[in-house]
Amino acid sequence: SWTPSRKHQRTSGPVEVTVRDALNQAMDEELERDERVFLMGEEVAQYDGAYKVSRGLWKKYGDKRIIDTPISEMGFAGIAVGAAMAGLRPICEFMTFNFSMQAIDQVINSAAKTYYMSAGLQPVPIVFRGPNGASAGVAAQHSQCFAAWYAHCPGLKVVSPWNSEDAKGLLKSAIRDDNPVVFLENELMYGVPFEMSEDSQSKDFTIPIGKAKIERQGNHVTLVSHSRFVGHCLDAAAVLAKEGIECEVINLRTIRPMDVESIETSVMKTNHLVTVEGGWPQFGVGAEICARVMEGSAFNFLDAPVTRVTGVDIPMPYAKILEDHSLPQVKDIIFSVKKTLNV
Amino acid sequence: MKTMLTVISNALCRITGKNVGAQTVPEGARVAVTRNFADFTPQVTFDIKKCDLHRLEAGPPVKAELTREQGLQYYRTMQMVRRVELKADQLYKQKIIRGFCHLYDGQEACAAGIEAAISPSDHLITAYRAHGYTYTRGVSIRQILAELTGRKGGVAKGKGGSMHMYAPHFYGGNGIVGAQVPLGAGIALACQYRGNNQVCVTLYGDGAANQGQLFETFNMAALWKLPCVFICENNKYGMGTAVERAAASTDYYKRGDFIPGLRVDGMDVLSVREATRFAADHCRAGKGPIVMELQTYRYHGHSMSDPGVSYRTREEIQEVRSKSDPISLLRERMLSNNMASAEEFKEMDVEIRKEVDDAAQFATSDPEPPLEDLCNHVFSNNPPLDVRGTHPWSKLKSVS
After folding, report:
1. Where is the Transketolase-like pyrimidine-binding domain (chain A) (predicted)?
2. Measured distance CA(B162)–CA(B150) in Å, rounded
3. Which residues of B touch A50 (CB under 8 A)?
4. I need a labelling partner for B51 at 20 to 30 A (CA). Which of A116, A300, B96, B301 fits?
């Protein structure tokens, strides 16, 4: 979709930008700012990106900075990590995070653990980015959410933006971070436009990794989510508000390190907690939130057990009716809130 | 059991050229009527291109025999695949098919030629551009189209979709590029283990040829002399990337290094058949694996999301269509040798279109799978288990 060119933005206020364009701007600005930054992945250059996220970048920066790779994930992820070890700042794109499984050893054993193993001698300033989680009708091998798997590992930062400001600010921070960052995008969000504040249009605009955002204030129940399902939570909150139930919606923004303090502060106010994610329940993001809340100061403020709303514990089916019932719907969130509040 | 027999029967019919639609086919598929007029040439020997060889003293024969029955059967198979793919294109644009859809039109001679050279008891595995192979391995077009439309009558009950269709001795349909290659070698290992003289045909594309797991597989297949026919369908583009930009060596038939290889004209069904027969014989003789490169072409883009013209010209596509179309090549050969009449081909085309339309009608009217099926098939041969739904109060059931 059309977004205004830079010259027209100087005096204007907020502007509508899709998540795709926000990511594109983030990479463009960081490529311009630091010549050590480069992008590598399948179809990122001449094809403009499998999902057009890197549109125009190859034309602007050329072969040295925007590199098309063969279909060799383990190989090019390793190459990217090696380049980072030697002082460059690669952005390694996985066409989807499902394909990162081919390369996961390089992400974990070569990237995540190295600064520790070297006792601080060898940093790995790399960003692994790409779409994560379910799309529409792409079936079991292409729909998995990897937030829990990557967030399990010390040494990695794991970021999961929801809207355009998140996407731009967090990607810029990820690229500037000296540590390996797994940046989980969402294909269904790429085309969604959001209003971006005037501040967020600045080339120096970044959002800190490790800090959640309260998207909506409320007193009765805390909803915690990340990525696409933040939108579902806000939709559920709007419906519940009509019945007098005011939800506080927290957008995690970062999965690791998780901003548990923001969750605890909210729970100490609302006394009720519902987590919402697209991934599977077992050992997932919601499971971790439950554990952390139990271990911390907010536990005594809970009036009910924490409720997790998650994907169904099955591989993703293809047929539309089955796929729709495999992921949290707004009505599932509404139902769960009411059960948690016992209303 | 009955379904399996039907599937094997259909596949046998396709190979032998006998009429499909003998009594084991339940859905009332049209029988291809072959009129054996006395004045048609019953058999012709054709010259076919010599294959480029790697670490082989001799290659497949340079002549191929074709009977009238075989010709009509290969034609029917290729035209059916062509029409099914075009129907899928149409249904995708109508948003009745969703998600991924990678079409095979242009490459039909590969699927038809390979199946003509192996038997239903051999094994075959491929990647995601799999609709053609699903058909040649015996799945009905109704079940293929209904799987694409996500209905309960689909071959995977609507749960798999385009890239995940299976049949006896056909292992899909695989979504992760290159992952099917070690799988294929594993199937070949099972054949060797059982001593049943079967081979596994393991297909991959020019893009997958740069996957590390292929080279690990080549090494083990050669070490252990697995009866695996590795076939690279080189259609010149890995998604949007031309082969020269992805591969330091585009001689895919040599990429097996210590494994012998041959490069074959993949647009000629007879060349494909002869080469596959040669390759399968090599494996069955205990000589170990072999690599075959089929030079072919896809008319569509990589998938339905790819117009296919940002990285290649329309002129190139048109040139292949007019000079090298596999279906036209076969038809011209048969017509110019008086093996069949133009009217016969036209009649077959009409019949095939009708079959495809009927199958599409089924595929669009069959109901979606029932919600009760959502959690089934998580485990095999297992007692029923409880599955967590989207929240703790949703307790779903899963049976094997």
Report:
1. 17-192
2. 9
3. 239
4. B301
Nearest C-alpha in B relative to A74: B212
Residues spanned by the domain of B12: 1-39
Which domain CATH number covers B242?
A: 3.40.50.970
Chain B CB contacts of A139 under 8 Å are 99-100, 160-164, 175
C-alpha–C-alpha distance, residues A163 and B7, integer Å? 49
Write down the pTM of the prediction: 0.91
What is the residue-wise DSSP string for B179-196?
A: THHHHHHHHHHHHHHHT-
d(CA B314, CA B184): 35
Answer for the pair A128, A100: CB distance below 8 angstroms, yes or no. Answer: yes
Q: Where are the alpha helices (DSSP H) in A47-178?
A: 57-61, 73-85, 104-105, 114-117, 147-151, 164-176
A73 is catalytic: yes
Provide the β-strand partners of residue A159: A183, A254
**In the structure encoding, which two tokens stand for residue B316, read together?**
């190139």
Q: Check whether B37 has a pLDDT greater than 80.
A: no
Q: Work out the mean pLDDT of chain A and round it to a whole number.
A: 96
Cβ contact A37:A30 at 8 Å: yes
User: Are B165 and B263 within one domain?
Assistant: yes
**Known active-site residue A264:** no
Partner residues linked to A273 by β-bridges: A222
Nearest Cα of chain A lies from the Cα of B83 at a distance, in angstroms, of 23
Tell me whether B390 touches chain A (CB under 8 Å): yes
Shared domain for B127 and B12, answered yes or no, is: no
The answer to whether the beta carbons of residues A38 and A91 sit under 8 Å apart is: yes
Contact B391 A339 (CB under 8 A): yes
Per-residue pLDDT band at A334 (split at 50, 70, 90): very high
- Is there a domain that residue B117 lies in? yes
The token duo for B50 is: 């010599």
Tracing tokens 């995008």 back to the chain, one arrives at A185
Is residue B223 located within the same domain as residue B360?
yes
**Other Cβ atoms within 10 Å of A155 Cβ, number:** 17
Which two tokens mark A27?
Answer: 């990479």
**Segment B44-72, tens digit of pLDDT:** 999 999 999 999 999 999 999 999 999 99
Q: Using CB atoms within 10 A of its CB, is residue B364 exposed (0-12), middle (13-18) or buried (19+)?
A: middle
| Residue type present at position A116 | Y
Give the whole-angstrom CA distance, residue A34 versus residue B312.
34
The count of residues in chain B is 400
Q: Kindly state whether residues B28 and B78 are assigned to the same domain.
A: no
The label of the residue with tokens 């919402």 reads A276
CA atoms of A230 and A267, how far apart (whole Å)? 17
Q: Helix, strand, or coil here: B230?
A: strand
Phi, psi of B292 (to 5 degrees): -125, 130
- For residue B392, the Cα-to-chain-centroid distance in whole angstroms is 43
Asked whether residue B216 is domain-assigned, the answer is yes
In a domain, B362, yes or no: yes
CB pairs under 8 A between A and B: 155
Q: pLDDT at residue B34 above 70?
A: no
- pLDDT tens digits for B269-322? 999 999 999 999 999 999 999 999 999 999 999 999 999 999 999 999 999 999
Q: What is the pLDDT of residue B39?
A: 85
- DSSP assignments along B266-319, one per residue: TT-HHHHHHHHHHHHHHHHTT---EEEEEE---SS-SSTT--S-SSS-HHHHHH
* Residue A325 with chain B: CB contacts under 8 Å: 371, 374
Measured between alpha carbons, how far is B38 from B236 in angstroms, rounded to an integer?
43
Which of B100, B150, B391 lies nearest to residue A319, judging by beta carbons? B150
Residue A37: in which H helix or E strand, if any?
A: strand A37-41
B83, B212: one domain: yes
- Convert the pLDDT of each residue in A48-105 to its tens digit: 999 999 999 999 999 999 999 999 999 999 999 999 999 999 999 999 999 999 999 9
